[in-house]
Amino acid sequence: MFNPSKKKTDVSAEVLVNTIWVSSFLAMIFTLPPLGLFLGIYFMTGELVIGAVIGFGVHFVTLAFSGRISKAITKIMS
To answer: How many domains are contained in the chain?
Structure first.
């Protein structure tokens, strides 16, 4: 039977801090380069659609490699 009142409380502070740092780095890797490309293309050429397509493309390519990126960052942080 499922007991929802049982909570896991044996997570160390080191694991929590490592998780927060890895998540923060992943968020920056997934958002800042595509956003920079989008804004750079938009302000240099004035083409909103081209900037959006390239920005979304880079964003989804980095998402495709998110597992590998996460493992590499976790390995570096440990």
So the answer is: 1
CA distance 18 to 23: 8
Q: Determine the structural domain holding residue 68 and report its residue range.
A: 14-77
Could you tell me if residue 26 is inside a domain? Answer: yes
User: Which residue, 60, 64, 75, is CA-closest to 21?
Assistant: 75
Give 16-73 pLDDT, tens digit per residue.
888 899 999 999 999 999 999 999 999 999 999 999 999 999 999 999 999 999 999 9
The total of other beta-carbon atoms located within 10 Å of residue 35's CB is 13
Rg of the chain (C-alpha set): 18
Write out the two tokens for 22: 């890895």
Residue 5 is assigned to a structural domain of this protein:
no
With both helix axes pointing from N to C terminus, report the angle between 13-45 and 66-77 in degrees, rounded to the nearest 10.
Answer: 130
